[in-house]
Design goal:
- The complex is a heterodimer of chains A (623) and B (282).
- Chain A has 623 residues and is of the alpha/beta class.
- Chain A has helices spanning 6-18, 32-36, 39-53, 95-104, 146-151, 156-177, 189-197, 219-226, 228-242, 256-271, 302-309, 338-350, 352-356, 389-396, 430-435, 454-468, 474-491, 499-513, 517-521, 524-541, 568-572, 598-602, and strands spanning 24-29, 61-66, 78-81, 85-87, 205-210, 246-252, 287-293, 333-337, 366-373, 379-384, 406-411, 417-419, 444-449, 555-558, 578-579, 587-588, 608-611.
- Chain A folds into five domains: 20-124, 3-Layer(aba) Sandwich (Glutaredoxin), CATH 3.40.30.10; 150-356, Rossmann fold, CATH 3.40.50.11540; 366-449, Ubiquitin-like (UB roll) (Roll); 454-541, Up-down Bundle (de novo design (two linked rop proteins)), CATH 1.20.1440; 555-622, Alpha-Beta Plaits (2-Layer Sandwich), CATH 3.30.70.20.
- Chain A is 39% helix and 14% strand.
- In chain A, strands 10-9-13-11-12 form a five-stranded mixed β-sheet.
- In chain A, helix 6 crosses helix 9 (228-242), helix 6 (156-177) packs across helix 12 and helix 8 (219-226) runs parallel beside helix 10 (256-271).
- Chain B has helices at 53-59, 110-123, 131-139, 160-168, 200-203, 241-246, 256-272, and strands at residues 35-40, 43-48, 83-86, 89-92, 103-106, 174-176, 183-185, 212-215, 218-221, 224-230, 237-240.
- Helices cover 23% and strands 17% of the residues of chain B.
């Protein structure tokens, strides 16, 4: 069916609203985390159970795969509509019970509750501080279904822009909203939009950056898989407001489901006359193509990304001319993160004042964070900008698991920074995080506990960045391996006196001289950990790792007073180095210990501690 | 409603599946040719708008060291040696376009010197024997450091050879791989089949990493052998047969000095030519 006018779109929406809704639905979470923990098998089993019970027509009772429900820790998740119950850790074997008891019977299955304390998703602590706008349709629509999207209010923003607002007003709403780029830099979207609007030259291109590559981050993936049409609608509105002819969504090759869903949605929107030429029968056309990246981290950088779309090697170029002046094929180009685009329909539909009600003055709106690491509840969390880091880590995340202590939170991906405990007070916004030496990045947060060594963390991220450096400019290509070499020496007990200061000067020079944003920020893991955890660097220089992470650089010592003789460390030790039995406190035999750290991790009472080796110095590792 | 659209929107003619639009002519940016005026190290200079900072500095007689820059090739800005300070920030002078009046560039501030020293300290570990790198390193007081000398293969990855090969047409070699392992090579790390043995890569290499040998009318470069065709005039062997074929035939097969002589005699003939009445001079 092709819609040939705005009136036909309204008519279709009316008929969708009048269609009878199923009495009860099961939404099996199809987000990245749940799919990885077996949600697809659960869904197939639920489908089979529905067939058995005779609900396969989907009229009265339905089961569908939804977008990411967020609480990945407890996946695979199943949400029940309309009750709003949330089940967690569901297995295919639970399917029949779910279908009979809950779907048909309307009864809650206690043993499958996602949270032992409450049934309803919205009252679970993980969801309390959240405001789900970007993820608002997750769990309410089938991600790849255009009719579901329309029924849930999708394309009403484009409809409003085309019928009443006109391009000027649509543009004005985005400009006044104060939306800032969600890709990491936080550049005001309005300024970018104006630059493109006033740029000379045709055609003009729009790009959505979906090349999410940070380790541990998956919010863009969840968006492209969970509500791809919001990105497509946002870009279509952008094309209308700024006068662009063609757009590209650049998605990394490692996200095959994102590519599949985006392609499917583009096709569906084109068939319905919501994309392509003569949209809704009007003299306005916008073509959108999905481009798969080859998997280089640097292709998330805007100039490397445009080179990749052009079919050239994905490498950044020196950027003294803005992309809005000369970008893709040297034509005016506007590039934004997929999450920025997904904000556009909401802003255009509800107006800038509505958007500014959420978040803080300089940082309006919400942001999706992927919370991973040493917290009780990991997953995707959408918070108003300006909420505190603590509300994310300790509120939604539930804090560090019992028996361990919070040490640092790494924000902004590999080129972000590590912040200490004092940062829990900081507001989550672009400026505060950058001021503290980290960055928002695309919204990845990794929580670390006292067993994480910050020098080793810096080494890990430097190794990642060094491997992902494109090798074009000398500082990044040659300078990162120098930093990596020093960090490796430090974590393996070969550090030299003065290495800490040397690292700092190398990192500063790298930041000052590298060509692209990736290279300039590649020094951040070192600079931010040096800023807050310099002591640990100096200890490593002297051959000691207080976290018990760097092998050979400490000795586990049991605190006799704190030890409760539970024997956990003894069980964990692979070398038989823990001595003692019965109710007596355990001891570690230094000569047998291989410093693997297993006893430290096993102890729930902070009784096993990493101490400086008596012989001191790095030579200890050969002993 | 369509009536509310303020500007006509081109681009609808292209149906789905069409290739990206071919570049359309752009309206001229400015009708008047503009000069911008400013200073480099305090020396006043006025240059056409868009001139690079490096060119302006050289016009002032201010020397800025470069490695990846070559006057005959498109700039790349990758070696980061030519940095200078402008508006309080480091800029790569070989690519920084001077677009505003009143620019104040400084090429010898402590920040600039630190940056150059840093870059040279990294490159000297790659090409510790290259005379040009050694000379620069000496000038800036930088020495090789065995701790970080992991692969001193003599190449600084400036890419001049690759850009020269592309500019000349064959595009036989490229930088392949990424990060520290990036290096200049033929496709699939094999001797480049498209190479015509023209030597452009070797002649513009700043470190002398690309070597070649000539013996018995043959030239070896990139692990390939080329036969040198004799000049039809004097018999000197300058061009490879592949090179002559690549640029289309035998007319240009004469060696450069013979070609000069041939051109001079052609010019003489033309000067001596007396046109019959009523015919225009050729």
């Amino acid at each position: 069916m092709r819609l040939n006018s705005i009136e036909e779109l309204r008519e279709l929406r009316r008929s969708l609203a009048e269609a009878p809704a199923p009495e009860r639905r099961l939404w099996v979470c199809g987000g990245p985390g749940c799919l990885a923990s077996g949600a697809l098998d659960v869904f197939r089993a639920v489908e089979a159970a529905c067939r058995e019970e005779g609900f396969s027509d989907g009229v009265r009772f339905r089961a569908d795969l939804s977008g990411c429900l967020g609480l990945c820790e407890r996946g695979p998740l199943v949400e029940v509509e309309p009750e709003g119950w949330l089940y967690g850790g569901v297995k295919p074997g639970d399917a029949r019970e779910l279908v009979r008891e809950t779907l048909a019977g309307g009864r809650f299955v206690e043993r499958l509750a996602a949270d032992p304390k409450c049934r309803e998703k919205d009252s679970i602590a993980f969801y309390l501080p959240q405001k789900r706008l970007i993820m608002g349709r997750f769990g309410r629509t089938r991600p790849e279904s255009l009719t579901d999207y329309l029924a849930a209010g999708g394309y009403s923003a484009l409809e409003l822009a085309l019928s009443e607002l006109g391009p000027e007003e649509a543009f004005r709403r985005v400009e006044l909203s104060g939306l800032r780029g969600r890709g990491g830099g936080g550049f005001p979207a309005g300024r970018k939009w104006r630059a493109l609007k006033e740029a000379r030259g045709r055609p003009r291109y729009l790009i959505a950056n979906g090349d999410e590559g940070d380790p541990g981050a998956f919010m863009n993936r969840a968006l492209m898989e969970g509500d791809p049409l919001s990105v497509i609608e946002g870009m279509t509105i952008g094309a209308f407001a700024m006068g662009a002819e063609e757009g590209f969504v650049y998605v990394r090759h490692e996200y095959p489901l994102s590519v599949e869903r985006l392609n499917g949605c583009v096709k569906a929107a084109e068939d319905m006359g919501l994309l392509g030429s003569r949209i809704l029968g009007l003299d306005f056309g916008f073509r959108l193509r999905i481009v798969e990246g080859g998997g280089a981290f640097v292709c998330g950088e805007s100039t490397a990304l445009t080179a990749s779309i052009e079919g050239r090697e994905g490498q950044p170029r020196v950027k003294y001319v803005r992309t809005t002046e000369a970008g893709l094929w040297e034509k005016p180009t506007l590039l934004q993160n997929v999450e920025s685009w997904a904000n556009v329909p909401m802003i255009v539909k509800n107006g800038p004042d509505w958007f500014r009600e959420t978040g803080s003055a300089e940082n309006p709106g919400t942001k999706v964070f992927s919370l991973v690491g040493k917290v009780r509840r990991t997953g995707l969390v959408e918070l108003p900008l300006g909420s505190s880091v603590g509300s994310l880590v300790n509120g939604a995340g539930g804090g560090v698991p019992k028996g361990r202590r919070f040490k640092a939170v790494q924000s902004g991906g590999p080129s972000g920074g590590c912040l200490p405990e004092s940062a829990l007070e900081l507001p989550l916004d672009f400026d505060a995080l950058a001021g503290a030496g980290a960055m928002m990045g695309s919204g990845g947060l990794i929580v670390m506990d006292d067993l994480s060594c910050l020098v080793d963390t810096a080494r890990y991220f430097t190794a990642f960045l060094s491997g992902e450096s494109c090798g074009k400019c000398a500082p990044c290509r040659e300078g990162l391996p120098v930093i990596l070499e020093v960090l490796t020496d430090m974590t393996e007990g070969r550090a030299r006196v003065g290495d800490t200061d040397f690292l700092e000067s190398q990192a500063r020079m790298l930041a000052a001289t590298a060509l692209c944003g990736l290279g300039k920020s590649a020094a951040n893991p070192v600079l931010s950990t040096l800023r807050y955890f310099r002591e640990e660097y100096l200890e490593h220089e002297g051959g000691f790792c207080r976290s018990g992470r760097c092998s050979g650089m400490y000795l586990p010592v049991v605190d006799g007073k704190a030890c409760r003789a539970c024997g956990a460390c003894q069980k964990a030790c692979p070398a038989g180095a823990v001595e003692g039995s019965g109710k007596e406190p355990r001891r570690v035999a230094a000569d047998k210990c291989v410093t693997c750290g297993a006893c430290l991790a096993a102890c729930s009472f902070e009784a096993v501690k990493a101490r400086r080796r008596p012989e001191g110095g790095p030579d200890a590792r050969t002993a | 409603m369509p009536g509310q659209l303020e500007t006509p929107r081109p681009g609808n003619g292209r149906g789905p599946g069409a290739p990206p639009a071919s570049p359309q002519p752009e309206p001229p940016r400015s009708a008047t040719p503009l000069l911008v005026e400013g200073t480099v190290n305090g020396i006043r200079i006025s240059v056409p708008k868009g001139t690079t900072l490096l060119r302006a500095a050289r016009l002032c007689g201010v020397e800025i060291p470069t490695l990846c820059h070559h006057e005959g090739l498109p700039p790349e800005g990758s070696c980061r040696l030519c940095v200078a300070e402008i508006r309080g920030q480091l800029a790569v002078s070989c690519m920084f376009p001077l677009r505003d009046d009143g620019f104040k560039a400084l090429t010898d501030t402590p920040a600039v010197m630190d940056a150059r020293r840093y870059v040279l300290s990294l490159l000297i570990n790659r090409a510790p024997k290259a005379p040009r790198i050694r000379k620069l390193a000496d000038e800036y007081g930088v020495a090789p450091d065995p701790r970080f000398m992991k692969d001193p293969d003599g190449c600084v990855r400036c890419g001049r050879c690759v850009r020269a090969c592309r500019a000349n047409g064959p595009e036989a070699i490229a930088l392949a791989g990424r990060g520290f392992g990036r290096s200049v090579t033929g496709p699939f790390r094999k001797p480049p089949e498209a190479c015509i043995g023209c030597l452009a890569c070797a002649l513009c290499c700043p470190t002398g990493k690309i070597t070649f040998a000539e013996k018995d009318g043959a030239r070896r470069i990139w692990d390939r052998e080329f036969s040198l065709a004799p000049c039809p005039e004097c018999g000197a062997r300058v061009f490879t047969a592949e090179q002559i074929a690549f640029y289309g035939g035998s007319a240009s097969a004469a060696c450069p000095s013979c070609r000069k002589k041939l051109m001079a005699s052609e010019l003489k003939k033309a000067a001596a030519y007396e046109a019959p009445d009523g015919l225009p001079l050729p």
